[in-house]
Amino acid sequence: MVKIGNLELGEKPLMLAPMEDVSDPPFRALCKQEGADMMYTEFISVEGLIRDAKKSVKKLDIYEDERPIGIQIFGANEDSMRKSCEIVEAAKPEVLDINYGCPVKKVVCKMAGAGILQDIDRMVKLTKIIVDSTNLPVTVKTRLGWDENTKYIVDAAERLQDVGIQAIAIHGRTRKQMYKGEADWTLIGEIKNNPRMHIPVIGNGDVDSGPKAKAMFDRYGVDGIMIGRAAIGYPWIFREIKHYMATGEILPPPNVHERVAVAKKHLERSLEWKGHITGIHEMRRHYTNYFKGLPHIKPYRAELVTSYEPEHIFDTLDLIAERYSDFEFQPKTEFFYQGSTRG
């Protein structure tokens, strides 16, 4: 049984990674429906929270049917991080998560996100401040290190545990790698098998199929797996992994009618939660994966990612369902997302 504080997540839980403009309530609801055991919000700026910025505060929205959920914050100022804890607590998540992994320049240049991997002492100090400022279980999501020469994560994980975090999720790349190359789980396994570690260790990076998830659990002994890019436009990844873990069988992929129905539901919820312009714009990154594998899909995809008229988008989705009604997707063992996202 994996536990984060008093929160019980069962055996070998699967988590939806926090991703900017992706892990919002509309998408979290779909992933929960397909078997995700725990959700995380998009990362939220503590500076935005303490200044009551509309975009930051909006990200605190939590719905009962998506619990358990962690709210993820990022920042570098000690006082701001401390003050944000009270705001996060008021939203009543199960967990407060700290982002020490975001690799984008405008975050790291402020020594936030993965930027703090350049100063592990500061990382530990800031974490202790947050732990001491909240009654929520505090967790951390981070990377192996700043670059190949600074992979201090084994020692850092011990120190973070010592100041009170309740779980750690590790992306198997350095900040310098961004999302390039193959994730290295070797150090994640070393942390999990460190006799000093007693908190859950969650692996993250390149898990895109049931066989790969099982291999990571078996090879490295991690307590759980966090799914990021492989879930974008493909919430079925959670049910596929769980089915394979339970039976050793690869589920048939969803047919085009199921994909269109889910894409419509996703768009409807996105419009409702984000409004017309943002709701349409932030759905666009999902369409490629919703319909990956369909031949000659490019003209339809172009319509989906250029139109700002909801009716036209829904009509295009209906055309996809009609045009590819008899198409059979091939079962897969791998799923690769072309692109990256912050988080």
Task: Give the structure's gist in a few sentences.
With 343 residues, the chain is α/β, with parallel strands linked by helices. The chain has helices at 25-33, 46-50, 54-58, 78-90, 105-108, 120-132, 153-162, 186-192, 210-220, 237-247, 256-274, 276-290, 298-306, 310-323, and strands spanning 3-4, 7-8, 14-16, 39-40, 44-45, 69-74, 95-100, 138-143, 167-171, 201-204, 224-227.
How do the strands and helices of this protein lay out in sequence?
Layout: E1 3-4, E2 7-8, E3 14-16, H1 25-33, E4 39-40, E5 44-45, H2 46-50, H3 54-58, E6 69-74, H4 78-90, E7 95-100, H5 105-108, H6 120-132, E8 138-143, H7 153-162, E9 167-171, H8 186-192, E10 201-204, H9 210-220, E11 224-227, H10 237-247, H11 256-274, H12 276-290, H13 298-306, H14 310-323
Parallel strand pairs: 3-11, 4-6, 5-6, 6-7, 7-8, 8-9, 9-10, 10-11
Antiparallel strand pairs: 1-2
Helix pairs in contact: 1-11, 7-8, 9-10, 11-12, 11-14
What keywords describe this structure?
343 residues, alpha/beta, TIM Barrel, disordered C terminus, Non-ribosomal Peptide Synthetase Peptidyl Carrier Protein, Chain A, two-stranded antiparallel sheet, 2 domains, globular, 9-stranded parallel sheet, 14 helices
Structure description:
- The chain is of the alpha/beta class.
- The chain folds into two domains: 3-247, TIM Barrel (Alpha-Beta Barrel), CATH 3.20.20; 256-323, Non-ribosomal Peptide Synthetase Peptidyl Carrier Protein, Chain A (Orthogonal Bundle), CATH 1.10.1200.
- Helix content is 42%, strand content 12%.
- The strands form two sheets. Strands 3, 4, 5, 6, 7, 8, 9, 10 and 11 form a nine-stranded parallel beta sheet that branches. Strands 1-2 form a two-stranded antiparallel ribbon.
- Helix 1 runs antiparallel to helix 11 (256-274) and helix 11 packs antiparallel against helix 12 (276-290).
- It is globular, with a radius of gyration of 20 Å.
- The chain starts with a strand and ends in a 20-residue tail after the last helix.
